[in-house]
Backbone:
C-alpha cells in the first residue's frame, strides 16, 4: 500500500486526500484506518513502514517540526538503504523553505504546492497518481 507520512496537524487535509487515492484503486496505509483500537501504535506503524511500496511525505512546517515525522522519515531511509524497494513521493507545502527539507527530499523530484488549500487536492492527485500506478505496474 501507499503509506502517508504526515503531521497530526495536517490530518484533516490528508483525510480529504485519501479518497482520491482509493477512488483510483490505490491501496493505502493510514493510521486511522489500519490501527485497530487496543493495538500497539508503534508496532502497527512499523508494520506499515515495512509493508508499503510507496510513501508519500506530506511536508508542511508542522511535519518539519515533528519528532514523530522525523522518526518515520528515518525509518523509511533505513529501509531504502537496506533494500531499494520503495517509491518516495514528497508533497512540499509552498511555505516550507528548501533549506529545511531533508536531503533525501531535496535529492528527488517533488511536488511543491499549497498543501493547506483543499482546492489543491485534485491537482495533487492528478500529478502523483500516474506515477504511483506506473510504479506498481513495474
Residues:
Amino acid at each position: 500500500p501507499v503509506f502517508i507520512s504526515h503531521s497530526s496537524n495536517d490530518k484533516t487535509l490528508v483525510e480529504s486526500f485519501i479518497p482520491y487515492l482509493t477512488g483510483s484503486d490505490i491501496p493505502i496505509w493510514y493510521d486511522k484506518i489500519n490501527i485497530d483500537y487496543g493495538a500497539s501504535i508503534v508496532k502497527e506503524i512499523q508494520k506499515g513502514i515495512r509493508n508499503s511500496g510507496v510513501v508519500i511525505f506530506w511536508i508542511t512546517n508542522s511535519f518539519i517540526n515533528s519528532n514523530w515525522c522525523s522518526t518515520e522519515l528515518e525509518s523509511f531511509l533505513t529501509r531504502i538503504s537496506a533494500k531499494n524497494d520503495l517509491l518516495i513521493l514528497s508533497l512540499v507545502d509552498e511555505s516550507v523553505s528548501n533549506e529545511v527539507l531533508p536531503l533525501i527530499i531535496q535529492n528527488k523530484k517533488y511536488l511543491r504546492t499549497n498543501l493547506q488549500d483543499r482546492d489543491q487536492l485534485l491537482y495533487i492527485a492528478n500529478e502523483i497518481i500516474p506515477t504511483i500506478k506506473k510504479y506498481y505496474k513495474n
Q: What stands out?
A: The chain has seven helices and five strands. The chain has a mean pLDDT of 94. The CA atoms of residues 21 and 129 lie 7 Å apart. Strands lie at 2-5, 28-29, 54-59, 87-93, 111-113.
